[in-house]
TrEMBL record, chain A:
Protein's name in the database: Beta-hexosaminidase 2
Organism the protein comes from: Citrus sinensis (Sweet orange)
Source lineage: Eukaryota, Viridiplantae, Streptophyta, Embryophyta, Tracheophyta
UniProtKB/TrEMBL annotation, chain B:
EC number of the protein: 3.2.1.52
BP GO annotations: carbohydrate metabolic process; glycosaminoglycan metabolic process
Cellular component GO terms held in the UniProt record: membrane
InterPro entries, A to Z: Beta_hexosaminidase_sua/sub (IPR025705), GH (IPR017853), Glyco_hydro_20_cat (IPR015883), Hex-like_dom2 (IPR029018), HEX_eukaryotic_N (IPR029019)
Swiss-Prot/TrEMBL catalytic activity: Hydrolysis of terminal non-reducing N-acetyl-D-hexosamine residues in N-acetyl-beta-D-hexosaminides
Similarity comment: family membership: Belongs to the glycosyl hydrolase 20 family.
Organism: Citrus sinensis (Sweet orange)
Protein name (record): Beta-hexosaminidase
Amino acid sequence: MPHGSVIPAIILIFSLFILKLCIASVASAGGGGNGINVWPKPRIMSWTTQPRANLLSPSFAISSPKHFYLSSAANRYLKLIKNEHHQPLVTPSLINITTSSSSALHTLFITVESLLTPLQHGVNETYTLSIPADASIANLTAHTVWGAMRGLETFSQLVWGKPNLLVASGLYVWDSPLFAHRGLILDTSRNYYGVDDILRTIKAMSFNKMNVFHWHITDSHSFPLVLPSEPDLAAKGSYGHDMQYSPDDVKKIVEFGLTHGVRVLPEIDSPGHTGSWAEAYPEIVTCANKFWWPAESNWTNRLASEPGTGHLNPLNPKTYKILKNVINDVVNLFPEAFYHAGADEIIPGCWKADSTIQSFLSNGGTLSQLLEKFVGSTLPYIVFFNRTVVYWEDVLLDDNVNVRPSFLPKEHTILQTWNNGPNNTKRIIDAGYRAIVSSSEFYYLDCGHGDFLGNDSQYDQLQPSSSANNGGSWCGPFKTWQTIYDYDITYGLSEEEAKMVLGGEVALWSEQADPKVLDVRLWPRTSAMAETLWSGNRDEETGIKRYAQATDRLNEWRYRMVSRGVGAEPIQPLWCLRNPGMCNTVH
Amino acid sequence: MVRSHTSISNVVALIFFLVLLIIPSVQSTTATTIDVWPKPRLLRWAPLHQLSLLSPSFTIASPYDHPHLSSAVSRYLTLIKTEHHLPSSVNNPLTATSSPPPPPSPPLQSLHIFIHRLHAPLHHGVNESYTLHVPNDRPTANLTAETPWGAMRGLETFSQLVWGRPSRVPVGVYVWDDPIFPHRGLLLDTSRNYYGVGDIMRTIYAMSANKMNVFHWHITDSPSFPLNLPSEPGLAAKGSYGDDMQYSPDDVKKIVEFGLDHGVRVIPEIDSPGHTGSWAEAYPEIVTCANMFWWPAESKGEDKLAAEPGTGQLNPLNPKTYQVFKNVISDVVKMFPEPFFHAGADEVTPGCWKTDPTIQSFLSNGGSLSQVLEKFVNETFPYIVSLNRTVIYWEDVLLDGVVKVDSSILDPKYTILQTWNNGPNNTKKIVDAGYRAIVSSADYYYLDCGHGGFLGNDSQYDQLVGSDTVSNGGSWCAPFKTWQTIYNYDITYGLSEEKATLVLGGEVALWSEQADPTVLDSRLWPRASAMAEALWSGNRDETGKKRYAEATDRLNEWRHRMVSRGIGAEPIQPLWCVRNPGMCNAVHASI
């Protein structure tokens, strides 16, 4: 027993000695501040004394109010904090390390004002974290349990060291997100992802203080969601029994989201992108299983915007019978108050392939009327379940097939933009709707990896021109983390208009993504949006874009995410981290 | 008890399988093919398209005492018996039965290997041809090869023919195969970021599955010097990223042996005189401009100290340079049996040498930078050649616009030049100058491109919103090279038949500014597979048309098989496309 305490003391003295040596060697390094960083950068993080670090007591505990989800989060963070032993690639250049174990930090005390506030859009995520110098207690105060979770994440990032844990001290953090909606879309229809892949993604989102997992569950390629009222949709429309999400899987994902402060927002795309429904109900889907763009036909006569055809038929009453069963089940499975109903990319050629629609059109009807019929029959039903409906912008802004605003009550409708950058955001706001920004020019994470179409003649070129431009895909080039970080989602809007922008979502469409590349496609680029939407992309004092100083911080954060089990891609050689500033460009 | 139980279950499985064969196919199969990647030069499957079960006691008979071949045989035997590959496509001709159902053949009992020249070493140009015959009337298949290395290629082909549970194999199959290009390589940069020995071995393993034969190991560069050398231990001790990010002599031995077991040569590159900043940690006196900011503010592009962050060039005017350098070469030659030695010589940057006072005075006395480089090459090239090595240099040594040597000091007999700039133009310049060429065109074969720049504080990103004008994904060699771009590249474009023989082959390259073990597999595969097929059997069909169109489905299938073999290759299409062959094609000229 006696040497049990002697050895740690020796290790401690030795490690502090090493630490001091390291400090001496990097103290002059500029750019990254003192090396104590939190991603996304808090709104206010100030030192009440000279920057210092305190020991984290081996018996450190988190005192949390009793709350089903917060208690779970507190346990999780306690484990992370005690086991992570993050070793910064650049040693924090602190002035003082408190070595006395008598003043080690023993407790993080959490106070929550309103324990009952549910996790929903606009919930208060503000927190303050105070870690006094040389004190044994730190305080985390938040309005809601969800804000407390954000503060726990911040605290976890302030702890490092091996074998002894150190925690930044003499520190005050006030934090609150600029945008309420900070999301990520994953498409689980084009390729399937296991439940664990989704859970790992939600976990990584919570590390980055993101709060909306937009689950694009179904599309033309597969229907992986098992619904109690419509079991055939998945039984026949999924990629196979091993590539489905059962109601229990969904429950697990939703609960996991709640313990991580991440809302799970389901999207059942319709009336387009529904080819997979035809496996169970061929009668309600037009143009299903056809070749997407027949030879000799014009682009305007294509049947789908990409391979995988099929639209729900708004003129068939059975369509609504099935769809209402689907909506009913989905609403039961997902407590989330937003429901994404899709409505993107209605392709005229697909509806025109149907004979009842043909006769409707030849009697003077229009495709837009068809869409209005569909929206008019479904939106009220969704709203009836106390859901706010999110649609893709196309429902209003598409050139050919769109509905009149009267079909989209503004209090129940949010439009998600993906085309034309800031222009369409403005059009949505100007029309009086709230907007979620997923501009494909900035936020689409799948772009730039070449096209997935087979036999594509753009690649068949005479030498020596490598002119398959932009990486070949429609939304190429690859969106770099800098492109994402620098995007101002309220660009060109008045202050009043900007309030209608709820936030943004990066998107991973899965034509060329599956579990093999999930983490590398998402991270750390998603972290770039997470910081911009949390605390902005500009220096608080100068107003200048701060991506330059963000590079070193993001690089460090990438390594920390990797050690936490998130396979984020590297953004620089290790050498750049070891030599801060040396990989910059000054031209 | 156990034994009889086993045989009963085999019989049941066999009966079940035969029933499967008799069930008429849902869809008639038109173009029935067997997919092997890279596609063999010649593959014939007798018109009945028969399948046999692979006998549970299937063996590979190789009567030869050859350690590397024996290792490969036992490896493939395990793979063949345990892989049970299930084609992703339910419409795969192998899983659907053709109509009328073919008569069953007896289970295949063994594969016999015949080799003519057992002791041919794994060198450039070694004969890799093989013939594989899986008859439909005997339970024995034959694999005949000139060399053990050709036999390994044939084993890979055979392994790809086997699929299903229970395992079955097409019979009545004859394959003749032989690579078009003898040099089919992959370059990995282990200096900018470190890769573990396991990562390198997995890469070599994946290369062998694609019949690639050269692992070009760009071991050292300015960011780190991970190679632990017995004569110069200070270089890695001080110049590596850390004790846990080095390659010991035992690691190298393991990698070289692993390469031999897989028919993959391991060519070391010790880049010099440029790209040597990491040497300065141990020997600051032999490195000019080390640890300086790469492109100082207010200076012009031509005064840069390095092509990218990480400065440092060996000083050709310091005699100690050669003392250290020769120790390095001597050690490397001992560690790597490979007769090719890559000596680098790319991107010699004038600004770096000009910071050194001795070089300054040499220049002010009428000397030129090219003379400085010639001095370096003259001191080192003959030494490497004296150790029985052919020297590979990057094309820059001859083609650089500013600093280059006279071709008279590079004997074409001992020199190969590797091209990376200007696509086919520089390949032509190299062969026109009489040198053999290895093609690594950055426009086609650089796998790291298109992931954005890695420089910090880069003003190209500071733009008004609304204009996403960082074109091409931001990095210097963007855009991302798609598998189609790689597949379609003709590395001998514009050369006469005579000159084309000087092109030894090609190498895809993964530079590691933005790559490390977390992304290694997804950056390499299946794009390296695209080059592997183009260099093995070409990128055109019998009619002379580019065959990337029909390659899509095959590559997709091969990607899924590589994933199940433990290689994290990235997806190229939704699974739906594999399940619905042809439906994801484009039939129009452009979109």
